[in-house]
Structure formats: C-alpha cells, structure tokens
Amino acid sequence: ANCSECLIMDIPEKMQGVMVKNGAGTAQDMFLDSVDVPSITPSQILVKISATAINRADTLQRQGKYPVPAGATKIMGLEFAGTVASLGSECSKYKVGDRVFGLLGGGGYAEYVAVEEGHVLPIPDEVTDVTAAGFPEGYITAFQALFWIGGISTTDRDANAKKMVLIHAGASGVSTSGIQLCKLAGVGTIITTAGSKEKLEMTKKLGADFAINYKEEDFAARVAEITEGKGVSVLIDYIGQSYWKKNLDSIGLDGKIVILGFLSGPVLPEGSSIAPILRKRVTITGSTLRSRSDQYKTDLIKDLWEFAGKAFSHGCLRVIIHKELPLSEVCESHRMMEANE
After folding, report:
1. Of 3.40.50.720, 2.60.40.1080, 3.40.50.920, 3.20.20.80, which CATH number belongs to 139-286?
2. Sign of CA dihedral 175, 180, 185, 187
3. What is the pLDDT of residues 225-254, one digit of tens each?
4. Using one digit for the tens of pLDDT, what is the confidence trace for 281-330?
5. Burial class of residue 332 (count of CB atoms within 10 Å of its CB; 0-12, 13-18, 19+)
6. Across residues 42-53, what is the average pLDDT?
7. Residue 70: predicted pLDDT
C-alpha cells in the first residue's frame, strides 16, 4: 500500500491474486498471478484475506457477462473474511489485527483487498473466518431484496405474520439466507422451489414452510393451493423468461416481484401478457447490488447488522458451505458452482 495517509504495518508490495486469461473464459482459464497489493484511500482499510466465497456472479464475471464497475479491480470475489492490515486516515472503527468480514465490488480472490470501512463488519468471537466469509453477499442481497425492496419489516412482526413469500432457487446462497431472514422476521408463510429432494429438505430445515419441486410440480398451481388462491406478497426470482407467466400467476394483489437474475434468459416468451401486472397492481423491481453507491451499501449493511447481527453471532443464522478449497483450486470451485453442485 502506498498511501501516505495510512497507518501501515509490514505489508508486501506483491500478492497472489486470481486472474483470467485474456480477461474472460472458462473455469480452466483462471490462474494465480503475482499482482500489486492494492493501495487504500483515507476511507478504506486493507485486509489480509483468510477466506472468500464463490458466488454465481463470479462465474458470470469470468465469462465476461457481468461487467466490473468503473474503477473496481478485475480480480473476482465479492466477499471476504480476514484481519485488518492497515487503516486509512479517516477510519476509526477498527485497529490493525482485528478480525473482520465484508462486502466487495471485487478483489476477494487474493491475499489482500482494499475495502470501504463502512462495508466491513466485526467477526463475532463465536464465528470462524470461513463461515464469516460466506455471509455478506448472500445475506446482504437477500435483505435488500426482501426487506428494502420487498417491504418485509425489521420491527413489525404482526405485519410480517400476514405476509406470504415465494423464494425461487431455494438452495442457492441468497435464497438460503433469505429463508432464514424471513423466519427471523416472523413472516407468516415461506415457500421455496428447488429441483431435488435433498435441496427441498434443506430449505425446510432452514425455515421454509413449503418446498416445491419445480421438476415434478407446477409451482404456480401449488402456490395457489397453499395461499388459497390469494397469491404471495413477495416473490424473489432469478430465473426470468421461463418463470414469467407462472410468477405472475403466483403473485398476489399489490404484490412485489424482485428480479435478481434471468438464468433462463431475459427475453419474455412470445405472447406474454402484462395484464396481470395491471389487474393485480403488481410492482416489479430489478436489482443488482454491486453497482450501488458506497453510501447505499453502507446503510444497507448497517440496517442488516442491526436486525440480524446478534442472531448470526449466536448461531441462529447459518451459512451453508458446500466445500472448502484452497485458492489454488479456484477452477474446481467454479466448476462445482456451474454444475449446480
């Protein structure tokens, strides 16, 4: 780090970071390279990374389908855990050596990362670095979608008890986080979809009241049955095109659909009707987190931690870890993610 305004400990000039050959490619095109340790601004801290996590967005970035925000590092990795190595002159919440975890615009697949102090949280004593590294992207994204956009309350449990929520891709990182946050908030009915018995069972253990196998059932018909024809209050979707009509069938009056992805494609099926949006007074919001402003992310993280920090510290909110691998096996981690393992 070469910022003259920073409090600096012994930090190398070079580090190992994961790069992609020619800027985009397959999982096998990733490699460890020697790169500069990032400099920090007065509002940032430098963290020596002990653990990071793999997200679907990483695989899209690697393929060249998820552009890096202006000014952000090209190194992948949206979350981390580690220890504070140095502090910008405006930073006062932490000291060198503190265990921290947080949200990134990129840079987690490396030995060091520069991060805004407001995007960092203290790792509770009871929580391991590996568990902490898997918390930020899933929980922050789910909290934003369900609470800030979807309208679930952090304080009004009586209002939440009247809500019914449908979360697709129930075994994904964002969805497993969302199920648990809904349960913590006292949401009345939590419905998820997934494609295997094992995944369905896991979502129910995390708090889902109903788990629908989308490969075996028409999820819209099942939602109508569960909600007695009323539809759900909030619906979280990552699938897009192939779920469009069934999502509109599943949403209730004045319901909110939050679109976080379009794995089946962004172009709507021929003959799609927008009439249900008008008839049901549906609000549809698309959202990404990475491109939001630093202040937005700071406020969002603060709000989430005030609501869920104690529950996470006490082990009431789980991070689902499929497998632990060294950074040198990052290619295998992407292969597993893309195979939906």
Report:
1. 3.40.50.720
2. positive
3. 999 999 999 999 999 999 999 999 999 999
4. 999 999 999 889 999 999 999 999 999 999 999 999 999 999 999 999 99
5. middle
6. 97
7. 83
Could you tell me the fold of the domain covering 7-134+321-338?
Answer: Quinone Oxidoreductase; Chain A, domain 1 (3.90.180)
- Is pLDDT of 4 > 90? no
**How far apart are the C-alpha atoms of 163 and 131, rounded to whole Å?**
30
State how far the Cα of 293 lies from the Cα of 71, in Å rounded to an integer.
Answer: 13
- Per-residue tokens: 126: 């009871």
The amino acid present at 158, given as its one-letter code, is D
For the chain, the domains span 7-134+321-338, 139-286
* DSSP secondary structure letter of residue 16: E
Tokens of 53: 């996590």
Single-letter amino acid, residue 162: K
- The confidence band for 30, taking pLDDT boundaries of 50, 70 and 90, is very high
Contact present, 41 and 51 (Cβ < 8 Å)? no
**DSSP letters along 66-104, please?**
SPPPTT--SS--SEEEEEEEEE-TT--S--TT-EEEEE-
Burial-class residue 260 by CB neighbours within 10 Å (0-12, 13-18, 19+): buried
Q: Give residues with Cβ within 8 angstroms of 254, minimum separation 6.
A: 233, 280, 281, 282, 283
Q: How many CA atoms lie within 13 A of 201 on its CB side?
A: 3
Percent of residues, the chain, with pLDDT higher than 90: 93
Confidence check: pLDDT of 9 > 80: no
Q: How far apart are CA 66 and CA 82, in angstroms?
A: 26
CA proximity to 58, closest of 173, 178, 162:
173
Closest CA to 231 of 163, 158, 184, 143: 163
Run of H or E including 52: strand 44-52
pLDDT single digits (tens) 194-217 = 999 999 999 999 999 999 999 999
